[in-house]
């Protein structure tokens, strides 16, 4: 069974990355609802390594100012919420509770390269779920990469051990009409079927 055209429009066809936000706040209840959707998305072995730092106050968002590019700084300042999408390098410590495979925790703990790769890959996947869940809840999401991850980690994540992956500005878009969508690659340019 597929979802309807309206849902596909909201998630993909009509959704755009916002250039500005209208100033309406995003409630804590919406943020919790957002995470409750994100956590249901699949990850390999149910490892769920993503961690999310929601910057909801002006003071918290201001702490990003010197760590992001000027264009991103303006967007972060305007957004009611900025999410630092992170991953936990020690995600495997939770595996005994999340996965019934008895030796899985020890397997990841013994291989730093494997655990780092798994945490980054699956944490990125969960960040994608965050964008889609935000759209499903009526929010606009602006993912961004132009920032100094080490500065963000030092300034905001030092006590967590989490690693910063990318940022997402969240809010209600302040755009009366959708901007023209930037071009995308065609199926033949981006896909192979063997």
Could you characterize what this model shows?
It is an enzyme of class 1 (oxidoreductase). It holds the Pfam family Nitroreductase. Its EC number is 1.1.1.298. This is Malonic semialdehyde reductase. The protein is an alpha+beta fold and 194 residues long. The chain has a single domain, classed as NADH Oxidase (3-Layer(aba) Sandwich), CATH 3.40.109. The protein contains 9 helices and 4 strands.
Which helices and strands occur, and which strands form pairs?
Elements lengths: L4 H9 L14 H11 L11 E6 L2 H5 L7 H9 L2 E7 L7 H4 L5 H6 L2 H25 L3 E5 L4 H9 L5 E9 L15 H4 L4
Antiparallel strand pairs: 1-2, 2-4, 3-4
Helix pairs in contact: 1-7, 2-7
Class by helix and strand content? alpha+beta
According to CATH, the fold-level topology is NADH Oxidase
- What are the secondary-structure elements, in order, as H or E? HHEHHEHHHEHEH
Strand arrangement across the biggest beta sheet:
1-2-4-3
Tell me the number of structural domains.
Answer: 1
Give the helix tally: 9
Beta-strand percentage range: 5-15%
Q: Quick one: how many beta strands?
A: 4
End-to-end distance: 26 Å
- How confident is the prediction overall: mean pLDDT? 94
- Rg for CA atoms: 18 Å
Helix content: 40-55%
Any guess at the CATH architecture? 3-Layer(aba) Sandwich
* CATH uppermost class: Alpha Beta
The CATH superfamily is NADH Oxidase
């Amino acid at each position: 069974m597929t979802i309807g055209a309206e849902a596909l429009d909201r998630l993909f066809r009509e959704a755009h990355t916002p250039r500005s936000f209208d100033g309406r706040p995003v409630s804590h209840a919406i943020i919790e609802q957002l995470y409750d959707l994100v956590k249901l998305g699949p990850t390999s072995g149910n490892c769920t390594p993503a961690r999310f730092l929601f910057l909801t106050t002006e003071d918290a968002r201001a702490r990003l100012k010197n760590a992001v590019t000027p264009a991103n700084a303006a967007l972060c300042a305007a957004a009611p919420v900025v999410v630092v999408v992170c991953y936990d390098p020690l995600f495997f410590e939770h595996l005994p509770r999340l996965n019934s495979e008895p030796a899985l925790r020890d397997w990841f703990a013994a291989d730093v390269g494997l655990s780092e790769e798994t945490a980054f890959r699956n944490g990125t996947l969960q960040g994608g779920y965050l964008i889609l869940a935000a759209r499903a809840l009526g929010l606009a999401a602006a993912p961004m990469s132009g920032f100094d991850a080490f500065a963000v980690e030092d300034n905001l994540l030092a006590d967590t051990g989490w690693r910063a992956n990318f940022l997402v500005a969240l809010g209600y878009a302040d755009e009366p009409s959708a901007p023209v969508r930037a071009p995308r690659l065609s199926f033949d340019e981006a896909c192979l079927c063997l």
